[in-house]
Amino acid sequence: MKSLPDQLNAYKQTPVFTQDTVPEGLLKAHTTKTGVWGKIQVLEGKLLYVIETQPNESIELNAERPGIVEPQIPHHVKPLGNVRFWVEFYR
Prior knowledge:
Layout: E1 10-13, E2 17-18, H1 24-27, E3 37-51, E4 57-61, E5 67-69, E6 75-90
Antiparallel strand pairs: 1-6, 2-6, 3-4, 3-5, 3-6
C-alpha cells in the first residue's frame, strides 16, 4: 500500500458513509483531480478498495488499514457488509 507524501496538507473531509449511504460515484470507477491524494479511513467493518490499474489491485481496508488514493488513478470501493468510513483529501 502506498503512503501519503510528507509535504501534503489535508484540506477536506467527507461525511461518514455507511454501506447504505455510500455515494453511487464511489462504487464505480472514478479519480481524484491532478495533485489530489485521498485517504480512506474505515471506522467500523470492512471495505474493498479496488485500484483499477493493470492488473487491478484489490485491498481489504479496515480500521487498522486505511486506503491511500493516488492522484488520477481510477478506483472504486465496495462495502463488505456493515461498514462506516470517510475520505480525507490532501494536496
